[in-house]
Every structure is written in structure tokens, then in C-alpha cells.
Specification:
- Helix 3 crosses helix 4 and helix 5 crosses helix 6.
- The chain has 2 domains: 6-137 and 255-264, Aminopeptidase; 139-252, 3-Layer(aba) Sandwich (Aminopeptidase), CATH 3.40.630.30.
- It has helices at residues 15-26, 30-39, 94-110, 123-131, 160-170, 181-189, 228-242; strands spanning 6-9, 46-51, 54-62, 65-68, 74-85, 113-116, 134-145, 154-157, 176-179, 193-199, 202-211, 214-221, 246-252, 258-264.
- Helix content is 29%, strand content 34%.
- It has 7 helices and 14 strands.
- By secondary structure, it is of the alpha+beta class.
- The protein binds coenzyme A (COA).
Length: 285
């Protein structure tokens, strides 16, 4: 029996329908959607699913990063984002069909591997079953409360270009997603703070979102081999500068830590060697 949907790449005129579905599923506001569609939307890299005239699913492949291995090999990559099916179509295999097609699409267009951050821990199994996606990116996560600050770390705003450069310096020698300027500009336009840190041990960087009283630091990168106290000091300085009450930060981890991102290639293709401590970075979540 034929599937009750048809999947095809998006066309520019699909944008209003895509926005409606996105708003329904993810509840983001118009300012966020405007920035996304202006900055990152590529119709040819977006899959739409149609049940007759009705849009019932979508998946966006972002051209936002390259995968850089620990040996500095640069691998084309596409990040799956805002993948969803309409609530009345769930549980019928449409999600699986969309992600399978997306892995082929990225590969066909530019030999790109697919990476993504599953929105919930349960979804790791969905992606493993649907596209053989395996965790290769890990994080450590820690929370600090605000305390009076008298340390030496200074915090400055960074523009997307200098943040990108600093980030690449700090991640040298570790497999990671090298975010491009478009992605970082999108983040800045949608309210994320890109920060440059001057610590006693050298420069660091942080990417922070405010959620009520908590600062969600999507990445906190410091020079290698620093003790925990250096992270606590950086967290304290960020809390003080951005006037937050509590800060939760994601930091590079290893396979013993929390799985964060998965990678997938079409069946039979080789998975690039990412080592055991690859860094995903901000997932725009
Ligand atoms: C995740 C989502 C796209 C799946 O779409 P779908 O059309 O229901 O997917 P399928 O019908 O192909 O589901 C296949 C399997 O995944 C499982 N599954 C679906 N959503 C899941 C979830 N949120 N958590 C865990 N398992 C899930 C289903 O139970 C099904 O399992 P089975 O094959 O063993 O029965 C859909 O639930 C959705 O739009 N969710 C809200 C947005 C979201 O979370 N997107 C993912 C961002 S990473």
C-alpha cells in the first residue's frame, strides 16, 4: 500500500505553511521565525511531507557547520533542525520516513554527514532505529549559583566573526562542529549572548541564553587542562556580568559523560572518526 503522504523538497512558496506547522509544534515567536527563514532556511535542503494539500511534516537541514575531526579533516555536514510531524499524523511512520530521506538528501547534495541533537533522551532510540544514528558528541553539565564575585575573569560581548575564530582556536585538536558565521549571526539575532572571556589562563568563550532566572550556557570553552576552579570562576564572572541568579553550562565531555549529539551516514558509507570527546556546541535548542 502506498504511504498516505508524499515527501518532496520545499519551495519558497511553502514558507507560510511551514511557519504555521512550526509555530504549532515548537511555539516559537514570529521574531525567531523571521530570523530563521531569513538566515538559515534553504528550500532545497528542507523536506516537506504532504497528505493531499495538507502539510503534515517538515525537516530542515542546516548548512551551519562543518565537522572537523581531531586530525583537522573537514567533513561536509548538515544539521537536522525543527523536525516535526503534525500531531494528528504521529506514530504512523512519517517521522522515520522523513529522517531517512534527509540523510540521503544531505549526502546527495554535497556528501554531507548528518548530525543532530535529539530533543529528549528517549529520541536517541528513535534516531538509532530510523537512521542508525549513533552518539558521537558528549557533554558535561554543571550548575552554579550566584555568589559575590571578586575573581579575575573579564567578560565582553563578541561579534559572530570573532566568536567563531576564538571558538575554533579553543577547539583545536578536538573533533567538533565548526559553526559558520550565518549560524552564529542567527543565534545573536534571536537573543543568544556571544561572549568572550579573559581568564588568568587565556581567552575563553561562552554562548548564553537567558531562561527566567537561569542562564543556559550552551557552551563554555576554556583553554585545555584547566582545573574545575577555572570553570567556576568563569561561571561566576558570567553570572555577575549578565546579572543572573543561576547558571547551567554545557562543557566538552567524553564518552563516559552525557550523550548529546548523534551522527548518521547513508547505509554502507563510512562514519568519520570523531574520537571519544567530540563537541557539538550550541544546538539552537
Ligand atoms: C519526533 C516526531 C517527529 C516523530 O514523528 P512520528 O511521525 O510520530 O514518527 P514515527 O511514526 O516514524 O515514529 C517511529 C517511532 O518513534 C517513536 N517515537 C516517536 N516520537 C517519539 C518521542 N518523542 N520519544 C520517543 N519515541 C518516539 C514512536 O513510538 C515509534 O516507535 P515504534 O516504531 O517502535 O512504534 C514527532 O513525535 C514530533 O513531531 N514531535 C514533536 C517535535 C520533536 O520533538 N521533534 C524532534 C526534535 S529532535
Amino acid at each position: 500500500m502506498d504511504a498516505p503522504w508524499k515527501i518532496r523538497p520545499a519551495r519558497p512558496e511553502d514558507e507560510p505553511g511551514l511557519r504555521t506547522l512550526w509555530r504549532r509544534v515548537f511555539a516559537d515567536d514570529d521574531a525567531f521565525l523571521d530570523a530563521f527563514f531569513r538566515r538559515l532556511f534553504r528550500p532545497a535542503l528542507t523536506l516537506t511531507a504532504w497528505g493531499g494539500p495538507k502539510l503534515c511534516g517538515a525537516l530542515y537541514l542546516l548548512d551551519c557547520a562543518e565537522l572537523v575531526t581531531a586530525e583537522e579533516t573537514r567533513v561536509p555536514c548538515r544539521m537536522t533542525y525543527a523536525f516535526c510531524t503534525a500531531s494528528d499524523m504521529r506514530g504512523r511512520g512519517l517521522g522515520r520516513a522523513l529522517v531517512r530521506r534527509s540523510v540521503e538528501l544531505g549526502w546527495e547534495v554535497c556528501g554531507a554527514v548528518n548530525v543532530l541533537h535529539p530533543a529528549t533522551p528517549e529520541l536517541f532510540r528513535f534516531y538509532a532505529n530510523a537512521i542508525g544514528a549513533r552518539p558521537v558528541f558528549y557533554i558535561r553539565e554543571q550548575t552554579w549559583e550566584r555568589r559575590p564575585y571578586s575573581g579575575g575573569t573579564r567578560v565582553y560581548p563578541a561579534d559572530p566573526a570573532s566568536y567563531r575564530e576564538l571558538r575554533e582556536r579553543l577547539l583545536r585538536g578536538r573533533a567538533h562542529l565548526a559553526l559558520n558565521e550565518d549560524a552564529l549571526t542567527f543565534a545573536a539575532e534571536t537573543g543568544s549572548a556571544l561572549l568572550q572571556l579573559e581568564t588568568a589562563h587565556g581567552p575563553g568563550c561562552a554562548f548564553a541564553d537567558r531562561e527566567a532566572e537561569t542562564l543556559q550556557v550552551r557552551e563554555l570553552l576554556l583553554p585545555a587542562f584547566l582545573p574545575e576552579a577555572a570553570y567556576a570562576d568563569a561561571a561566576s564572572a558570567i553570572l555577575h556580568t549578565l546579572d543572573g541568579g543561576r547558571l547551567t553550562a554545557r562543557m566538552p565531555g567524553a564518552a563516559a559523560d552525557v550523550p548529546f549529539g548523534v551522527l548518521s551516514v547513508p547505509e554502507g558509507e563510512l562514519v568519520p572518526d570523531c574520537g571519544s570527546d567530540a563537541w557539538f556546541g550550541p544546538a539552537f535548542d
